[in-house]
Amino acid sequence: MKRLCLAIGLLAYLGSADAFSFSQLASLESKNEPAKILKFNQQQVSNQSSETKPVSQPAKLNADPTKTANAVTCFNNKSGIGLSQSKDLDGRDILAFPLDKLRNNVRYGFIENYKQGFSRIKKDGVWGYLNLCGDEIIACQYEKAEPFNDGKALVKRQDWHFVDNLGIESDGLQNIVDAKSLSKGISLVKLKSNQMTLIDNNFDKTNKPASSLYDEIIVLNNSTLAVKSNAKWGVFKIGEGAISELSYDLIEPSGKDNLFKIYLNKKVGLIDANGEVLWKPDFNVITDVDNYGFVKGISDTKQQLVNVNDFRVSKIYKKISDFDNRGLGIIQGENNLFGLVDKDLKTVIEPQFNTIGAMGEFDLIPVSKEVTGKGLKFGFINLKGLEVIPLEYESVGKINKKGLLVVKETVSCNLDEKGKKIGTCKADKVIDVNGSTVILPITKYPDAGKINYTVTDSMVHNCIVVRAYRNEDKNKNVKFMLVRGDDFKVITPEPFDFVQAVSKHQFFFVRQNGLWGTLDTTGKYLAKCQFKTVLMASEDYYLVQNDNDKYGYLDQRGKIQVTPDYASLEYFKNGFAIASKGENQVGLINKFNAKIIPFAFREIKFKENTREYEVLDRDNNRYMLNQQGECTQNCKQLEAIRSKANGSE
């Protein structure tokens, strides 16, 4: 006993030192005694020293196991693993044994983060606790175990007990079949009678509950409970007791701390953590919290918003939409008309429109309204409620990023093939955000009122792509038009089946009725639609074939440079192309369609290795041209053939 007291006293003394020898401490043990002293933590030393009083206790060596571990408290750290900075379950900064070092060990089924200085662990199927030094300070032996709660933890072997931070168990707690740790030394327990109540950390001594007995208790948050008795629910706050009458059919969490749903007569409302009623139970549904912190109450005849962050409550409306990414929501008033409210719950536009859509480009909002003598008309307003695009259309489309949109209006149309029967039809047209017409509606037979437009955000050569199609052909037979983005001038003389931009040379290939042509960026035809095929050739020229199966070339500007007169035409190489007008009529042209070799030869070959041309006449005489098209072999005879050909031409 004397040796034990000596060891404890020495430990208290060494607690004031910066470091000490583990071997010195161990040498104080009796060979016949178990090394219990090596399991003592800082609090154990404090408790024992108060009994033996060998020396005064240093102030910094105290009994709070939640304090950061250090060299003194961790004298028994046999693992040799350094301590690390982290946060415990309560968010406090701690220096402690790194629990990740144990999580790969298959013996552990559960390792919880530290709470109040202890980590709850499950090893080999039973529960125990580690201290901040990583010591299994309370051996794994329990069927169930709760986290530490103001110096004690609830554990179950056969009965429930309290265990303190020395591992000392209380007597068994009477009549308790299940338990859950809460806060402030209060725990929730279920009794053998199936009733539930609260107990404090002295229950093993007093055997007195800390609250009344209830039929059921639901944990709403760390300090607030929902309690039930005689089929009715109320709110209980730990440390304060019951703070609302037992008057609801149910109370449950809302998904937001300190805000709870209350149910009465199949209706739902909201209360705060103090039991104050924010919404009476008048709603069928309360939605989840949105991105702006609002929940919505919905009933058959009304809807309302409350901000769960500051408890601001909106006016009551018939309907309220979700807020968009600009923080605007559509509201329907008692007059059944629509307006706008913002996320500050300020009415931006009073309910006055038959329909109201989402705000689009240029901060304009599509709306409709009954116009006297004209019926329901559509247009756009701004956030001040002023008409920007007048309410005079049968429908309006989405404004694109450049400021174009499609509207449908009632216009005079030729409705028969003779053009004599004049009537009205609803036709699409394209306008800009100032209301100016960009593309006129189709009013003539047979397409009067039957051509729809779609404005896209696609841009080619600074031109907006507009799609045009008949009502029944939305997904096929679509034609394309181009509108210049700078001044909204239509540059396509007609809708085309296909438009392809040539970025390098700033013109367009266009196709109409299966034939290709070219268009410059002002809308002027460079070549009418007349070619069956267009192929990208070498040296920036485009090989084309007309509807008579003759070949020619377009230059890099999209203009016809080599008239389609040839039965066959090869790619340009060295600025020359082999061409043919028929059998034994092969020649060589340059990019200006000049005849470098007249069409009087059987064959011309391009030699890839030397970049020369080999020319063969009908008698197999051989002539050679260099890369510049100059004759290098049998030149006198070639010049005679050239002269004869030029004379006959």
TrEMBL record:
Signal peptide location: 1-19
Keyword set, alphabetical order: Signal
Region (Disordered): 42-63
Domain of life (superkingdom): Bacteria
Biased composition (Polar residues): 42-55
Protein name: WG repeat protein
Species name: Arcicella aurantiaca
